Amino acid sequence: MADSLSRRGFVGAGIASTLALGLSACGGSSSSEGKGGKVTISVNGMPPKTQPVDRKWYEQDVRDFEKSHPDIRIDAREGYMDPKTFSAKLAGGQLEDVYYVYFTDPSGLIQRRQGADITPYLKGVPYVEDVAPAFKKVFTGPDGKIYGLPNGQYSLGLIYNRDLFKKAGLDPDKPPTTWDEVREAARRITALGDGIVGYADYSKNNQGGWHLTSWVYSLGGDIATRQGGRWKAAFDSDAGRKALTYLHDMR
After folding, report:
1. Does domain 2-138 have CATH number 3.40.190?
2. Residue 71 DSSP symbol
3. Per-residue confidence band for 9, with pLDDT thresholds at 50, 70 and 90
4. Are 167 and 140 in contact (CB under 8 A)?
5. What is the rounded CA–CA span in Å between residue 53 and residue 203?
6. What proportions of the chain, in percent to the nearest 5, are helix, strand and coil?
7. Nearest-10 Cα torsion for 222, 227, 233, 234
8. Where are the domains of the chain?
9. Is 160-250 a domain of CATH 3.40.190.10?
10. 157 DSSP 8-state letter
11. CA atoms of 93 and 246, how far apart (whole Å)
12. How far apart are CA 154 and CA 37, in angstroms?
């Protein structure tokens, strides 16, 4: 059995997101063109040409937006948040006006006053009220104002091989619903031999950290807590130890 979805980057432990920032304080801003006051807004996150389907839909979204907002031109750029260059681009005013960040970053950006308050502009945004409160909270500052919105999220789950279930005498139409049942199914599948692994969890590169984060949260713990305006690691807890014990025992 294998974990079906990995939590990459921020997202690894969380959710992909977009944070709209005002860059004028850092030397950058959106530009105006022509006598009509047409505004150009730079936005990153455009899929590369190696992902033709995703890029096609992205470019179509841009065309649809520009058609419905004729006074705005979108300067779409490839790439997402690169931790190696992010701070330098932000300080030098070279960061896009709207860009992707990981869910772990908005709090610090808002605290350093590097984000633009977009609250007044959300009244006409479709479906904004449908955003889950927990996700919206990530982009909400201590002043109660909103500085960004999530543009997508995904969850973790388990996938299983129906053929292996049948070979191990398990019912593929009744998959495990508890970790004890997962362990029992994994034992029986591993017993089939031929190098078959009954259970596996992603742990390469940063995947292990994101998965551990999910485990800790699901057990009622936290990875970090705010203390006196600063964040402090909190995974050395009963929930953290229980999560690692689970993984150890599954191994």
Report:
1. yes
2. T
3. very low
4. no
5. 29
6. 35, 20, 45
7. -40
8. 2-138, 160-250
9. yes
10. -
11. 46
12. 39
- Please enumerate in sequence order all residues whose Cβ is within 8 A of that of 211, keeping only pairs 6 or more positions apart, or say none: 3, 6, 7, 12, 156, 201, 202, 203
* Nearby residues of 229 by Cβ (< 8 Å), 6 or more positions away: 111
128's tokens: 């904004």
Is the pLDDT at 78 greater than 70, yes or no? yes
Write out pLDDT tens, residues 89-101.
Answer: 888 888 899 988 8
**Cross-strand partners of 101:** 17
pLDDT by residue (tens digit) across 109-151?
Answer: 898 888 889 999 898 888 888 888 888 888 999 999 999 998 8
Structure letter (DSSP) for residue 149: B
Alpha-carbon distances, residue 179 vs 1, 27, 182, 250 (angstroms):
12, 52, 5, 9
Tokens of 53: 């389907």
Distance CA 245, CA 239 (A): 10
Identify the CA nearest to 186 among candidates 157, 212, 160.
160
Q: Is the pLDDT of residue 191 over 50?
A: yes
Listed residue (200, 203, 220) closest to 212, CA to CA:
203
